Amino acid sequence: MCARPTNLPRQPMPEQKPEERVRNFDEVPLGYAPEQAMAEASRCLDCKKPRCIEGCPVAVDIPGFIRLTREGQFAEAARKIMETNVLPAVCGRVCPQESQCEVLCVLGMKGEPVAVGRLERFVADWAREHGAIEQPQIAPPTGKSVAVIGSGPAGLTCAADLARQGHAVTIFEALHEMGGVLIYGIPEFRLPKRILRAEIQQLAVMGVKLETSAVIGKLATIQELMEEDGFDAVFIGTGAGLPSFMGIPGENLLGVYSANEFLTRSNLMRAYEFGRSDTPLARGRRVMVVGGGNVAMDSARTGLRLGAEKVILSYRRSREEMPARVEEIHHAEEEGVEFHLLTAPVELLGEKTGWLRAAVVQRMELGEPDDSGRRRPVPIEGSEYEESIDVAVIAIGTGANPLISSTTPDLEINRRGYIVTDEATGATNLPGVYAGGDIVTGSATVIEAMGAGRRAAAAIHAHLTGESAPSREEGE
Fold it and tell me: Rounded to whole angstroms, what are the CA distances from 170 to 82, 194, 312, 395?
């Protein structure tokens, strides 16, 4: 039974026009006005048994914050979200709500679900812009300290939860700025850096110590952190940032990038800031991006904004199999990215100078489903053709960086190099050492990594205090 039937349509999100945004790196969606947010929030049915919470890996009280938004209590709504989510403005922008909380919304059974992500973004932005972010209550110091390795979504979430519980937390980040994949992998037009930095700064206010340019495995090993530096527990949240390539001839040519390098140069190293940054990045006239996920969409849309006349997205399956968010695919198409589906490069060709000049592309057809449940691409013999390009970006996934595992010889990893943990707690085979996020699961979503960080934080707190570890439901 639901208490509030309504026929209001879903509120559209204002956006930059495609012909304008393709020439800048400003954020594409412009956000709700207060009136739009309240109208959208009024669509929520206040279900007695809200299924949407079940779809949220960090268990945000979705009906609770939406109810407050509907009533115009935006600061209170932000406080409600931040009870379980330390990165609401980030999640409101990059999380796939359509396949998590929104897919379980009752309204979606006969129409469009409540726009949970857009409302979360609005509330977080309103609170930040109006100086209404309240600091969470911090428990008295426990005398225990925790090292968090990596400042991506898993590490930030784990650190925040542990700091709330009174533990002294230090985050060690290998790069020169905090944020992990959020800062180096997601373009400015999807996640503005100022917004991410503002949310990370809240951890510093909570007392979390932020150490950048600290490469654990080189600066210190996990064993040294615990035995020499005195940390009582360690959380590994280093992500899965090792680039993957196709293994085809020509991938060592100039002008060929992994998506990691291409996006890191553009985002973290500010190659997108024309005239204000000296970061070298080949800005091709004809760019090919290989892949069909969100990273591929980010790379293709970045290529256009860097001045490409033509950007081709080569994906070896059909549109139905694309793992990217529907919104990202839609934005890429609006901006002029050409989708060459059921194709894959089999060789990259170069000039005598060593620069890329073309790709040999083979057409595909779909066969039987593979282990992922998607139909397997099968090459069509004799279908090869040559595509003139001068930059290629390989966005076919990532792997586990071996630095931590190679310097922690007793740490159990699987055959793909990912850390083996207890799913409910994040505990590794080493006492006091926990892990979560992409370094455990492989590439997944921001909010799934945050959920892993929350579960690990609950288990670490129990380990440090001698309390019983909570169940997953209690921990979230």
Answer: 21, 22, 43, 32
The pLDDT mean for the chain works out to: 92
Phi, psi of 435 (to 5 degrees): -150, 155
Buried b (16+ CB within 10 A) or exposed e, 32-61: beeebbbbbbbbbbebeebebbebbbbbbb
Question: What one-character DSSP code corresponds to residue 97?
Answer: G
Mention every residue, 6+ apart, whose C-beta is less than 8 A from residue 217.
Answer: 403, 404, 406, 407, 408
Q: Distance of CA 371 to CAs 172, 296, 317, 375, Å? A: 36, 21, 14, 9
Residues whose CB falls within 8 Å of the CB of residue 118, separated by 6 or more in sequence, listed in order: 11, 13, 29, 31, 32, 37, 40, 92
Question: Binning pLDDT at 50, 70 and 90, where does residue 117 land?
Answer: very high
What is the distance between the alpha carbons of residues 217 and 457, in angstroms, rounded to a whole number?
22
Angle at 38 between CA 200 and CA 450, to 5 degrees: 30
Upper half-sphere CA count for residue 9 (Cβ side, 13 Å): 3
Q: CB-side exposure of 177: number of CA atoms within 13 Å?
A: 16
- The larger pLDDT score, comparing residue 240 to residue 360, is at 360
When pLDDT is averaged across residues 360-385 and rounded to a whole number, the result is 92
Question: Which of the four pLDDT bands, split at 50, 70 and 90, describes residue 244?
Answer: very high
On whether the CB atoms of residues 342 and 366 are closer than 8 A, the answer is yes
Task: Give residue for tokens 């140069």.
Answer: 265
Structural contact between residues 187 and 297, judged by C-beta atoms closer than 8 angstroms = no
Query: Measured at the alpha carbon of residue 460, what is the angle toward residues 458 and 463, in degrees to the nearest 5?
Result: 110
Helices 62-70 and 116-129: angle between axes, nearest 10 degrees: 60
Task: Provide the total of helices (H) and of strands (E) in the chain, helices listed first.
Answer: 17, 16
Tokens of 71: 């009533």
- Classify the C-alpha dihedral 147-152-158-162 as positive or negative: positive
- Angle at which helix 153-164 crosses helix 446-465, to 10 degrees, equals 40
Using a 10 angstrom Cβ sphere, with 0-12 exposed, 13-18 middle and 19 or more buried, the burial of residue 73 is middle
End-to-end CA gap in the chain: 25
Buried b (16+ CB within 10 A) or exposed e, 313-330: bbbbbbeebbbbbebbbe
Residues contacting 49, CB < 8 A, separation 6+:
none
The pLDDT > 70 percentage for the chain reads 95
Identify the structural domains of the chain with CATH numbers, from first to last: 18-129 (1.10.1060.10), 145-241+399-475 (3.50.50.60), 245-396 (3.50.50.60)
